[in-house]
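Friendly challenge for the regulars: who can give me the structure tokens for this chain first? No prize, just bragging rights.
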Amino acid sequence: MSEPLLACEDIVKVFPGVRALDQVGLRLQAGTVHALLGENGAGKSTLIKVLTGVHAPDGGRLRWQGDEVHLRSPLEAGRLGIGVVHQERNVIPGFSVAENITLQQPPARRGLISPAAMIGPARDCLQELGLDLDPRLPVRELSVAQQQLVEIAKALHTDSRVLLLDEPTASLSPGEAERLFEVIRRLTARGTCVVFVSHKLEEVFALCDTVTVLRDGRSVLESAPLSEHTHDDIVSLMVGRAHAATAFTPRTVDASGPAALSLTGIATAAGHEDVSFDVATGEIVGLYGLVGAGRSELVKAVLGLDRVHSGEVRVHGEPASISSPRQALHRYGIGYLTENRKEEGVFLDQPITRNIAVTVWRKLAGALGQVSSKREQAVAQDLVDRLGIRLARLGQNAGELSGGNQQKVSLAKWLATDTRLLIVDEPTVGVDVRTKHAFHELLWELARDGMPIVLISSDLGEMVTLADRVVVMAGHRVRGQVANDHDYERMSQRIIRLIHDRPAPEAAVEKGRMTP
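First reply, four minutes later:
Bragging rights claimed.
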């Protein structure tokens, strides 16, 4: 085997009380796509930070083309030829697209940076991604998916020889993801090594050549050909045991009583027109559509975060005019698990106890309005145990947890309240196989116990696994509804027909229900 571009030898990284990396090895060859896999908390993010100069290793060696190197900063790693696109967006909202793309290597003449000179290089990077964007646009005007693609364009501009992509498709539509894969193939054809971190194993097997699997800070599979391993092999290596996929069978939901949520002829300021569907008690109704379909915008309007121009919203049979999420929670019992857990789901710099108990402070407050820390801890401990949240102590900040555990904390705060309707938006984006499995079981159990759930997910497999019924949206309208029989092939065909406005001939849609 030829000399690797970049190699880790017995890398160790220790934080107070935690051995995050324990003699990890990795060999990255030019012209390959290398999968870096593992559950949340396995050490992937720490390893990426060591490779990019954010953390200095406490043991072991890094070698660049055979020579030992000591990276003291991301800038130094970038100059060497190591680039990274992190899972969490790292753009500057007030800067233009061009300024963000060329930030690390801005075009300059005689020491002066020219904004006009940034346009050409930025446009070249955007064209390579197949992204039709004006480089002069402020990044804050872009969608989440577009901002993620700008992050990738930044890496293209630096011409990295090793490019680390951490969950790069989490915010992308299938079409955008496929464009990204084409870019990755072009990069490897010219000798770049791409490290691909993803929990979507179907993408890994379609794209990657070699694989390293981390578990509990150790490399349990190191730089091996992916073709020699099956999907089940990889999952077993990640979780340390054979992992059976969640299998839920179709069930009958009693819809004879008042609907837990009923939308009739809803039009919103975001552009929705004549949106109608209902959710029965104990039913999981999925909202499925491609990026831009208007699913998240619809529920935000229902929760009072945008205007509802016309139509009727009913919650548990009662007409509802909701002006804020606070009113949605305290008057109507609606909990909302947002897709943006970092900015809207948890307080990263606050303790886990406070994150969980914040929704029930009114109940916990004493006569003088003060909230006892012991009461907060009691509420938090119960939900930590119930959801299996992995933490060092209740008092640690939520920002110190892995992404999957942060999402569990975000869910816990709603379960702490008297929630009678739960809206969950992309609940398992960026979480590992075991955590995803646990979320599916938890949501299924909540529904079985009578909780009505609206599930928004861009993961078609997740939708087919969980939903009792799927409402298909495109262009801010409902295209139809499909009763879920949990047959992936059949369901995917029906849903794709509806997205493209070609209803299946064997199905007839009624208001709020689907009759096969």
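The chain has a mean pLDDT of 85. The chain has three domains: 6-239, 244-333+420-516, 346-417. Your move, everyone else.
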